Amino acid sequence: MAQPLSQTTIDTVKATVPALAQHGREIVAEMYDRLLADPEIRTLFNQSHQGGDSPQHAALTNAILAYAQNIENLPVMAAAVERIANKHVGLQIEPRHYGHVASALLAAIKAVLKDAATGEVIRAWGEAYWFLANILIGREEQLYQETAATGGGWRGWREFRIGKRIQESADVMSFILKPADGQPVLKHKPGQYLSFDLDVPGTGKLRRNYSISSGPSNDFYRITVKREQGGLASTWLHEQAAEGTVLNAAAPAGEFFLKSGQETEVVLLSAGVGLTPMISMLEVMAANNRAATYLHATHNGRHHVMPDIARSLSRRCVTFFEDPSSEDRAAANFDVEGRVTPEWLARNTNTDQADYYICGPKGFMAMAVNGLRSAGVDEDRIFYEFFGPAQELDAAQQQRNRA
């Protein structure tokens, strides 16, 4: 068990809150510059998520500030700690990595705050960092052991072969992954993801997470990947990862998954490739004779993925096309023209009782989460994965409204 923080440390960290609020983004940017200079650490990060307006930078900035603000009331950070621990397990973070982060963070605080970063401040933040780090290390070790001890589970990286490639739409491909050792695999919780350690020719090592788009199985996993413009990993998977290609994957991870043993009404709400965890959830619900309402938004029929699977598995399926083509209209292959709106959700779903699971682009999730809150849906009935504070959801919704 981690040693309690001293009162001196608590007081000193709290006193840095105004400076963190003003200079947090600079500190995080400086910290990442130092971390990414280390080749071993650089492979742990998605380079496309770096930069001044990076959501990853914003999320860490807010996490550091929240830690300082709540250092006397750490139970309010429990959900964030669980989310971070799951992400770390997916990426196979080890205790030795924490030392690199500590050095980079403390050096960044010193570099940005200059004379205000006194020896007392650096000592306090060092103690506070390692207090939280040891909590995370302990929880991550627990998750590693639990996963490895479960039937079909493993620790570290495991080889999988691409057994089949399926072109789902113009820019989305599914990959059936089978264990190279021929042994059973862990049945994932519907909604979880796999993390991959990819070795891309001409690029090098890349770490990526992809949601599992199939129901739990001891035989295989399916991931469904959108080809992103400029995306190094997704482009390689689409263009070069042929059937038979071996990929290194960590065991399923993530705390966003369908809750079991509940009979409440469920609404699954997705946009774009955000449907991947929803298909996994639908397969489980259908197998258990559990009714689901599935709402999915996409641009048009050219980008619509797995429509037959979604309709066959859900009690009620409503498809939104933002910009349907004349062919779409002739084929009548969608239900609503335009975007999902909070007003539509309030009118057409059971906001008094249903549980909502949401996945999609940031602006879409902002609309859905904030819209459901405004409609009176309790927080404990809204499930989603979002890295950042409520203010970022609001900003994302404003940007979506302007688009």
Automatic annotation (TrEMBL):
Enzyme Commission identifier(s): 1.14.12.17
Transmembrane segments: none
Residues annotated as domain Globin: 4-141
Record's keyword terms, sorted: Detoxification, Heme, Iron, Metal-binding, NAD, NADP, Oxygen transport, Transport
Domain FAD-binding FR-type: 155-259
GO BP term (any one): response to toxic substance
Pfam families: FAD_binding_6 (PF00970), Globin (PF00042), NAD_binding_1 (PF00175)
Reactions it catalyzes: 2 nitric oxide + NADPH + 2 O2 = 2 nitrate + NADP(+) + H(+); 2 nitric oxide + NADH + 2 O2 = 2 nitrate + NAD(+) + H(+)
InterPro entries associated with the record: Cbr1-like_FAD-bd_dom, FAD-bd_FR_type, FNR_nucleotide-bd, Globin, Globin-like_sf, Globin/Proto, OxRdtase_FAD/NAD-bd, Riboflavin_synthase-like_b-brl
Obligatory cofactor(s): heme b
Record-linked PROSITE patterns: FAD_FR, GLOBIN
Alphabetized GO MF terms: FAD binding; heme binding; metal ion binding; nitric oxide dioxygenase NAD(P)H activity; oxygen binding; oxygen carrier activity
PANTHER family for the chain: FLAVOHEMOPROTEIN
Record family assignment: Belongs to the globin family.
Its job: Is involved in NO detoxification in an aerobic process, termed nitric oxide dioxygenase (NOD) reaction that utilizes O(2) and NAD(P)H to convert NO to nitrate, which protects the bacterium from various noxious nitrogen compounds. Therefore, plays a central role in the inducible response to nitrosative stress.
The protein's name in its UniProt record: nitric oxide dioxygenase
Organism: Leisingera methylohalidivorans DSM 14336
